[in-house]
Amino acid sequence: MAVECNDQWRNFLGKHELFVKLRQNVEAEVLRSNRTLNKNLFFCLDDDFFAWDEKNSVLYTTSLRNLNTENPELSDFKTLLCINPPLFEVDYLLVNPSQHYVALIGAKGLTVLALPKRWGKRSEFEGGKSKINCKTIPVAERLFTSSTSLVLRHAAWYPDESEEPHLLLLLGDNILRLYSLKDPHSPVRTLSLSQSEEQSMSNARGSSYTASLGEVAVAFDFGPLVEVSPVLLGQKGKANLFAYPLYILYENGETSLTYVSISHSNVNIGRLQGPLPMYPPAEDNYGYYACAILCLSHVPNVLVIATESGLLYHCVVLEAEEDDDQTFTESWDSKLELVPSLYVFECVTLELALKLAPGEDEQLESDFTCPIKLHRDPLCNIRYHCTHEAGVHTVGLMWISKLQKYIHSGDEDKDSLQELAAEQKCIVEHILCTKPLPCRQSSPIKGFLIVPDLSLGATLVCVTSTYECIPRPILTVVRPSSPPLLCSEEDRGPVTSPLKALASDSFEKHIRNILSRVSANPVFIRSSDKDNAPPPQECLQLLSRATQVFREEYILKQDLAREEIQRR
After folding, report:
1. What mean pLDDT comes out for the span 196-216?
2. pTM metric for this prediction
């Protein structure tokens, strides 16, 4: 029975009383806020589902495992009350690595909510109480109150869960501030992100010139823990230290690097290095209006840089060589330290708004731009997700395993990297489309999450602006390669005959290659505006596009696969 009910919760989650309560606040939220940015007000811890109520400033939670029973409890959810609720509009939620705190993040402030303790037979919050008062900690409250024009651009938890929780904030004044929950009013460390000392000492008038040139930092992301020289952290010791690299993205597409280390004795933020050189060179310096950056933990690290026009750059972080002609940065002890470089492995263009037909409409759709947010996948390290005002995309980097083999092989021919990029392309899946027609306004989503509990099934959950819940199983096409079996490594001689090499390939793999799709039809979300009906011509174009995709990517490829199976 457990196998039959494994995915039952997907059918009942949208009917839960929790979502019924949230849908009652849709009209009030539309009247209160005119912002059209996408949000992320939902998250999941194991089998517990959490949702933020914007109207009442409370956090709801329910167990997804209870929805997999024979008699699911659709009205069972807990309410986590804020002792000091935030006075600003919350845009997204962020859980710390130890899963004890939740950051309520908005453009005008940040508040940390402490999750209550668990106990009892089912290990529920406060033993299963229906309403629980939770401690809230405002962060940098004085700074946001005194500077009303200051905007929070990006925030993230320090990735080490063994240390005291710290939050790193990037504000509109181009300064990074590191806060500890022990003293949330004063930053522990600060770092100016201006690319010259004159700009860092300038006033508000000077920062406006910096913004006009695109030299304002817009996002950052931590890389995996590495061992670095103490010089990079401003230390004078001889032994190397462990620190997290911090990649900082500017609006003009440039990327800088620094290192952050937090221990029980001290807190260190290294000097800013960069901008990191990008290869191969491009005439437009890889574009402007960059908006998001994501570091995938591989060896070497892979950076994903997104722009508002829908471009995704997959960059490989390469260590600097002494004979390279790239730039150097002056370190703390007046020595020269090598700066890593970024090799742009491939560039991907997302279809933000659907292209219905070539002609006038195509030019209209190509002008649509919006900020993009990048999300890492907790279940697969070669896959990440993109959310924006027009929907959701999933990207799988199938070439990472071959890239690692190339790096470890010691091959110094950099031209083979381009051959590898031409051979292996990433897989892009259009999951959700909230702007199917150019005449429709964008309908940003309210939530995006991945259910990490494998017993419930790997599932991607999207919540629309009207609190419609769309759970979709994550396709197994994008997955890391399995390690080879021990029996497959024994007595394995070289294959010399082409026929033997052809026969050694799996027939199942051959069929999968035939059935692999280049494009797919996403889930379309109807607009809540029922008064303005779309023109019949655009509806016909949308239907024709969907029919063409089904014919080319499904029916024709299934016919080819059937012929191959019959021939076999």
Report:
1. 52
2. 0.83
